[in-house]
C-alpha cells in the first residue's frame, strides 16, 4: 500500500458517497445517468467475485463490500425509490455498444482463460468506459449540477492516482499489470476534457455548462 | 519485471 493507492481508494469512496448523498438529500436523481450506475454495479459484481475464493486483507474485503453495497444502493435509488425524478429521455446512450465489445475483448485478451479471470478482465475493461453514458448525458443537456461535477472529479481522480500507484509498484516491486494499465490510461483520458472544465469553471465558482 | 494481476487492488 502506497500513498497513491490509498488516496486513490479514498477518492473512489468519496465519489460513491457524494453521489449517494446527493441523491438522498435532494430526493432526486436528476442529471444522473442510471445506465452508468448499472454499469458500475456490474463492474464491481464481476470484479469482486474473488471475495468467495480468496481473502487478501480486512481492508480489501471491507472496501469491496462497501463499493458493491453502495453501487446497488445507488441503482435502487435511481430506478426504484426516486424513479419519478430519473431523466430517462436524456439517458439515451446505447450500453450494448460498450458491453458487447468489452465482453469480446475480455475473452480475447486476458491473463488466463478461466471464468473468474475473464470476468475480472471484463470488469477492468468495462470500468474504463462505464462513465460514457454519464458524460453523454451531460453533453446532451449541456450542463451539470456542481455536486455532480464533484462526483465526476473524484471518480476521475481515483484512476489517475492508480496510474501513479502502478508506476510506484513497478519501480519498488518490479510488478505490473498491462491490462489494468492500458484500461486505466483509457479511463483517465476520457476524463481529461471534463477535468479541464472542472478546473476552469467549477473551481472558479461557476456552474458547469457547455456552449450550445 | 513480472507481468500479472495485482490481486490486492480494488
From TrEMBL, chain A:
It holds the Pfam family ER_lumen_recept. Its main location: membrane. The chain crosses the membrane at residues 65-82, 119-138, 150-168, 174-199. One of its GO terms (molecular function) is ER retention sequence binding. It is a multi-pass membrane protein. InterPro entries: ER_ret_rcpt (IPR000133). Belongs to the ERD2 family. Keywords: Cytoplasmic vesicle, Endoplasmic reticulum, ER-Golgi transport, Membrane, Protein transport, Receptor, Transmembrane, Transmembrane helix, Transport. It comes from Pundamilia nyererei. The keyword Methyltransferase does not apply. One of its GO terms (cellular component) is Golgi membrane. The lineage of its organism: Eukaryota, Metazoa, Chordata, Craniata, Vertebrata. One of its GO terms (biological process) is vesicle-mediated transport. This is ER lumen protein-retaining receptor. It is found in: Cytoplasmic vesicle, COPI-coated vesicle membrane; Endoplasmic reticulum membrane; Golgi apparatus membrane.
Amino acid at each position: 500500500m502506497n500513498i497513491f493507492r490509498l488516496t486513490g481508494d479514498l477518492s473512489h469512496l468519496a465519489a460513491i458517497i457524494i453521489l449517494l448523498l446527493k441523491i438522498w438529500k435532494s430526493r432526486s436523481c436528476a442529471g444522473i445517468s442510471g445506465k452508468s450506475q448499472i454499469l458500475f454495479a456490474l463492474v464491481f459484481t464481476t470484479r469482486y467475485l474473488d471475495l468467495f475464493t480468496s481473502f487478501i486483507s480486512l481492508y480489501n474485503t471491507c472496501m469491496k463490500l462497501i463499493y458493491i453495497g453502495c453501487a446497488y444502493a445507488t441503482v435502487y435509488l435511481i430506478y426504484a425509490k426516486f424513479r419519478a425524478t430519473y431523466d430517462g429521455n436524456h439517458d439515451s446512450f446505447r450500453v450494448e455498444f460498450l458491453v458487447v465489445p468489452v465482453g469480446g475483448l475480455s475473452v480475447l485478451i486476458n491473463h488466463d482463460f478461466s471464468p473468474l479471470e475473464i470476468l475480472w478482465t471484463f470488469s477492468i475493461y468495462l470500468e474504463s468506459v462505464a462513465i460514457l453514458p454519464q458524460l453523454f448525458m451531460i453533453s446532451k443537456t449541456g450542463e451539470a449540477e456542481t455536486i455532480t461535477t464533484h462526483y465526476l472529479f473524484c471518480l476521475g481522480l481515483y484512476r489517475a492516482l492508480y496510474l501513479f500507484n502502478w508506476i510506484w509498484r513497478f519501480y519498488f516491486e518490479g510488478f505490473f499489470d498491462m491490462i489494468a494499465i492500458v484500461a486505466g490510461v483509457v479511463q483517465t483520458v476520457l476524463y481529461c476534457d471534463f477535468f479541464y472544465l472542472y478546473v476552469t469553471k467549477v473551481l472558479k465558482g461557476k456552474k458547469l455548462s457547455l456552449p450550445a | 519485471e513480472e507481468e500479472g494481476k495485482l490481486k490486492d487492488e480494488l
